[in-house]
């Protein structure tokens, strides 16, 4: 969603802001803007559409300056217009960029109107600009103090960066609920909502915490709390690789990330193979916590939720531990019954999904004693709020459609399953060896699945013209059907639904005719014969079937039953391998429909609002 970048230096910062905003494009946005201190004024350039359009507009006026802030906006309050794009200014004196939502903006707006402020946008952010201006100009406070006082009066979630015309040597930032970090350079400093925005300038970063106020100058950074007391935060060295932020030889990040899966999986598996299924994988104190739990409650959204649904089959079957999985946005608003010894497991690629974060806080408030997070972004908000964490090693995931994050999340969940099984005496030494071996083989099996791409491209040609599709699976492959349908609808805009194949005749079968392609995930497992019967039900109604099977599934092809076989059966880890063909099917169908694969309409990579 929205992204923030800012810089204060002894050089022109406009290229830094533009590059930073381009690196934030992946998060999803609909307008972009910068505000730069030019020496005599704060000059703003904003455009609806791509950062490149804003960049051209800035170049036309030869915008330069040594202090500036920039923003990519994903509209929430107010439509997609230049007026609503950030930065927002007050009286040409104060400029603000903001991520998050100010919940009391109506009330503040009324108050500021009474004070004579005139609003030019429908955003909640403009309230911040005027409020800071009010304390700065009328209250006689300096910029940092004005931001501190103003932020105490804002409710909701925010990360803000503010500059002032009269103070060309400082940038003030505040953080509550939304990520913001400071990047430390030599004689220059930076701020960003995401480390990727500033990675070409510095890798030394400080992650701001709740309530932190940062005073960022060229020569240094001072951190204080909301009362003005100095605070210290650790300096981190970011290991995000520049290569992971660039396309290289690929046409799309989604394509790149699909093909990176053997490596992403091998990297994630490496930490498991190194020590075996030991609690230490999940951090200090894991042994004590994991041996006391009596159940698992998984909370997540979207693709991460489907990873959780897959894990439920493993956790109950292999570890014999009760497991529930719930969409975070539902859980956080229902009167759930707390089971204090049930481990809360949150799954989030970004680690900043608001619904997942709020569900975690809610679970804790209900009395759940322990939380474990599975996350791909180091030091992000959700792992920081958890007792235990395992990081997936997928590398930066830029495409809005999650691919390598999903399959690596499955590895983390499988490792959790086996660790719990071992602690509970349910994993024999022979089984442990078998599972470790299966993990070792997995990147190779995934590569074999990727090699099916030419055949899947042919299927995609038939899919591209359809308006609807059904996905079917059973057991542990049902969540893969759900994930396949989500991928397809997300990037092709084809309406797709997934069902457990056994549910077909309880309703969805009525939809099946020759215009409804039906994708079936049907590897050789205990439910294969049942799936085959379900397929007959579709065939009898004229439906065209696209079956992903494995070598042992023994499907016979016919005119309306197309089969692609993954080269080997990988047993318990089969859902990981079967995620690959459904990703490729969605990707190639989207290419043929000409959609914006990496930035599908209406969607954002990190969903930091409700
Ligand atoms: C996946 O393709 C989606 N874009 C989306 O469902 C995503 O998985 C969801 O928003 C959760 O994100 P998270 O893993 O970063 O929390």
UniProtKB/TrEMBL annotation:
Localization (cell): Cytoplasm
Domain of life: Bacteria
EC number: 2.6.1.16
Subunit: Homodimer.
Pfam family, one: SIS
Matches recorded under CDD domains: GFAT, SIS_GlmS_GlmD_1, SIS_GlmS_GlmD_2
SIS domain segment(s): 286-426, 459-600
InterPro entries linked to this entry: GATase_2_dom, GFAT, GFAT_N, GlmS/AgaS_SIS, GlmS/FrlB_SIS, Ntn_hydrolases_N, SIS_dom, SIS_dom_sf
Gene Ontology molecular functions: carbohydrate derivative binding; glutamine-fructose-6-phosphate transaminase (isomerizing) activity
Name recorded for this polypeptide: Glutamine--fructose-6-phosphate aminotransferase [isomerizing]
GO biological process assignments: amino sugar biosynthetic process; carbohydrate metabolic process; fructose 6-phosphate metabolic process; protein N-linked glycosylation; UDP-N-acetylglucosamine metabolic process
NCBIfam families (UniProt xref): glmS, PRK00331.1
UniProt cross-references to HAMAP family, sorted A to Z: GlmS (MF_00164)
Primary localisation category: cytoplasm
Catalytic reactions on record: D-fructose 6-phosphate + L-glutamine = D-glucosamine 6-phosphate + L-glutamate
């Amino acid at each position: 969603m929205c992204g923030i970048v800012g810089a204060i230096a002894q050089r022109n910062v406009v290229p830094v802001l533009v590059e930073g905003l381009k690196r934030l494009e992946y998060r999803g946005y609909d307008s972009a803007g910068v505000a730069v201190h030019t020496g005599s004024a704060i000059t703003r350039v904003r455009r609806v559409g791509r950062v490149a359009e804003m960049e051209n507009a800035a170049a036309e006026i030869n915008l330069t300056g040594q202090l500036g802030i920039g923003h990519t906006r994903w509209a929430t309050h107010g439509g997609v217009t230049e007026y609503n794009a950030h930065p927002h200014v007050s009286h040409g004196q104060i400029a603000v960029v903001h991520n998050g939502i100010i919940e009391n903006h109506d009330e503040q707006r009324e108050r500021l109107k009474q004070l004579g402020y005139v609003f030019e946008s429908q955003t909640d952010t403009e309230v911040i600009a005027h409020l800071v201006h009010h304390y700065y100009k009328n209250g006689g406070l300096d910029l940092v103090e004005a931001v501190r006082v103003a932020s105490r009066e804002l409710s909701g979630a925010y990360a803000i960066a503010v500059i002032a015309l009269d103070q060309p040597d400082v940038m003030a930032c505040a953080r509550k609920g939304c990520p913001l970090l400071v990047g430390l350079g030599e004689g220059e400093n930076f701020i960003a909502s995401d480390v990727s925005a500033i990675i070409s300038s510095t890798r030394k970063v400080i992650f701001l915490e709740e309530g932190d106020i940062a005073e960022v100058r060229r020569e240094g950074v001072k951190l204080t709390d909301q009362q003005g007391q100095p605070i210290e935060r650790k300096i981190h060295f970011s290991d995000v690789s520049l290569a992971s932020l660039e396309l290289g030889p690929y046409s799309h990040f989604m394509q790149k990330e699909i093909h990176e899966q053997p490596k992403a999986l091998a990297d994630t598996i490496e930490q498991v193979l190194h020590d075996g299924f030991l609690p230490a994988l999940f951090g200090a104190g894991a042994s004590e916590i994991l041996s006391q739990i009596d159940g698992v409650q998984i909370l997540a959204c979207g693709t991460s939720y489907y990873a959780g649904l897959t894990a439920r089959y493993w956790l109950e079957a292999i570890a014999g531990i009760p497991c529930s999985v719930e969409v975070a946005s539902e859980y956080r608003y229902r009167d759930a019954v707390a089971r204090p010894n049930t481990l809360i497991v949150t799954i989030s690629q970004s680690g900043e999904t608001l619904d997942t974060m709020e569900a975690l806080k809610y679970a804790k408030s209900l009395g759940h004693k322990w939380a474990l997070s599975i996350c791909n972004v180091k030091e992000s908000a959700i792992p920081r709020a958890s007792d235990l964490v395992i990081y997936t090693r997928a590398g930066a995931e830029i495409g809005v459609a999650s691919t390598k994050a999903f399959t690596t999340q499955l590895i983390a969940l499988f490792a959790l399953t086996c660790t719990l099984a071992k602690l509970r005496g349910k994993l024999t030494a022979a089984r442990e060896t078998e599972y470790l071996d299966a993990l070792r083989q997995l990147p190779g099996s995934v590569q074999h699945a990727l090699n099916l791409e030419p055949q899947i491209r042919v299927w995609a040609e038939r899919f591209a013209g359809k308006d609807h599709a059904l996905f079917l699976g059973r057991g542990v492959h049902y969540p893969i059907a759900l994930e396949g349908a989500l991928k397809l609808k997300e990037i092709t805009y084809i309406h797709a639904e997934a069902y457990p194949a056994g549910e077909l005749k309880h309703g969805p079968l009525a939809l099946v005719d020759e215009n409804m392609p039906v994708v079936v995930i049907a590897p050789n497992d205990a439910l294969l014969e049942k799936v085959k019967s379900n397929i007959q039900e579709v065939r009898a109604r004229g439906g065209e079937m696209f079956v992903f099977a494995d070598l042992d599934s023994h499907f016979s092809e016919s005119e309306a039953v197309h089969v692609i076989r993954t080269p080997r059966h990988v047993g318990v880890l089969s859902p990981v391998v079967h995620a690959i063909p459904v990703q490729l099917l969605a990707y190639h169908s989207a290419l043929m429909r000409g959609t914006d694969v990496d930035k599908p309409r209406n969607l954002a990579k990190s969903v930091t609002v409700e």
